[in-house]
Amino acid sequence: MNKVMNIVVCIKQVPDTNEVKIDPKTGTLIREGVPSIINPDDKNALEEALVLKEKHGANVTVISMGPPQAEKALREALAMGADEAILISDRAFAGSDTLATSHVLAGVLRKLDYDIIFAGRQAIDGDTAQVGPGIAVHLDIPQITYVEKVEVNGDTLTVRKAWEDGYEIIEVKPPVLLTAIKELNEPRYMNVKNIFETFKKEVKIWSAKDIDVDKDLLGLAGSPTQVKKSMTKELKGQGEIVNKPAKEAASYAVSKLKENHFI
Amino acid sequence: MNIADYKGVWVFAEQRQGELQKVALELLGKGREIANKLEVELTAVLLGSKVDDLANKLLAFGADKVIYADSELLKNYSTDGYSKVIIDLVTEKKPEVFFIGASFIGRDLGPRVASKLGTGLTADCTALDIDPENNNLLMTRPAFGGNLMATIVCAKHRPQMSTVRPGVFEKLAKDETKISSEKIEKFVPVLQASDIRTKTLEIVKHAKDIVDIGEADIVVSGGRGIGNKEGFKVLQELADVLDGTIAGSRASIEYGWIDKALQVGQTGKTVRPVVYIAVGISGAIQHLAGMQDSDYIIAINKDEGAAIMKVADLALVGDYTKIVPELIAQIKAYKLL
Description:
The complex is a heterodimer.
Chain A: E1 5-10, E2 13-15, E3 21-22, E4 29-30, E5 36-38, H1 40-56, E6 58-65, H2 71-80, E7 84-88, H3 98-109, E8 116-120, H4 131-138, E9 143-153, E10 156-163, E11 166-172, E12 176-180, H5 192-200, E13 203-206, E14 226-232, E15 240-242, H6 246-259
Parallel strand pairs in A: 1-6, 1-8, 6-7, 7-13, 8-12, 9-12
Antiparallel strand pairs in A: 2-5, 3-4, 9-10, 10-11
Helix pairs in contact in A: 2-5, 3-4
Chain B: E1 9-12, E2 15-16, E3 19-20, H1 22-38, E4 42-48, H2 52-60, E5 65-70, H3 79-93, E6 97-101, H4 106-117, E7 121-125, E8 127-130, E9 137-143, E10 148-153, E11 160-164, E12 184-187, E13 198-205, E14 218-222, H5 231-241, E15 245-248, H6 250-254, E16 275-279, H7 285-288, E17 296-301, H8 307-311, E18 314-317, H9 320-336
Parallel strand pairs in B: 1-4, 1-6, 4-5, 5-12, 6-11, 7-11, 14-15, 14-16, 16-17, 17-18
Antiparallel strand pairs in B: 2-3, 8-9, 9-10
Helix pairs in contact in B: 3-4, 5-9
């Protein structure tokens, strides 16, 4: 590419769902004390942007839609090496489902220059994998999901996309949206020097009026899906517990397998 | 949007290299039930190149009708090609419900199509039903890393779209008397090579012969408690005497003890074998989400309080390195009788 590449990375701050526990008495989620992190796949997306920047030169902008406290995730991204960060935060976005969220982020991207847009494949608090492709279709650009390798050759990208049972090598010309999976790379830690520098850098805060999108598509009104109800998953009842020496325990298990005609 | 204009249940009939994917047949099984409740037709939508035989198969497995888009440009999946044809079809024919397999293809295609159509999509549903009050589709899915189950509705937009992972629903019995060429509608897609902005240079399948754990009747699965790669040899032996297959939790994949394709759980595969033997697996919610619908669960764990012991039909407390070899020996002895 002749000019310096512009790369925009979409990240989300999420609760670390691995740390979520269920209250055994009430059966409800214990959310208190659960740390907020940059969504893992998004971190791979950011890492790849930084790798491309080191190899080819690029301007890396990180964007995130979220509440004011999501600024922390953007600061971490700056400390990893991103050049600019924008937090898109507005009460008008409240209640957004994946479609409305993709409209918000597409509205931000229309205000930015981009050759490559990176996103994580999916966020661990929702696991939907829908926002990335949504952004791509709103901007009418191609997408490649499940990306595990990226190479820049002149004005073309060569991308390795994972399949369940293998992979595909795809060539594409920017602009393009890529969604990252963890096989793509090993994200770096924050750099101490960058952490200091970060305090000099500004996290820009944008609201609904700063983005280029039809306002009817945002928030609750722009969200076709609604949660009708949610419940903690009902676990099967307690079965039989056998606490005996190995030989007896195995013998009992085999008798059960026979009794049920599994063997 | 006039919701009343939208009629019928559609299933995306995913094929790869001319082979119908089993999730398509499973979706026809569930789609049949939903279509019957709504008293509408069940249509399979097949895209590909010269895959006429698959259209017949879809009829034999429950579709009332097949819409078949046959084009050289649709031979292999491409986001641009497939999404354009599907969007055109939905816009013209207006289905009220549209199910897509939550494979790497479906999870790429589904959001692209739904976002363009401006309708809702619910990913990775584990239960689908019709609300008897208003005929809306009730889509239930795990959220929050499997910690919660949420029922989602898409009341004011059509089609109501969901993706479903392989192994969640059951296919119907094959009925070849349902096959009839009159039920196959050829659709001529408006598609040019220039519509597809990506170029496939190569498709590579992993040479190693990895079994599909979703197909196995008996699964012997190991977790962090196995301790090392060697430990999986004894699990493999147990799987062999049971004519089963091995699998593992996320930890065993992260340690590199077994292949990623063998992962059970929220980020791996959903399995529901006849027998699931969980060895050294603590039973994180993410893991339980992928196996708790198994018919019979045996857990082997040192820790009686581990979560897995609470979902197991039979919980053996103890050291797997002692119990598993005993199991192998006793099953072998029984089989020799």
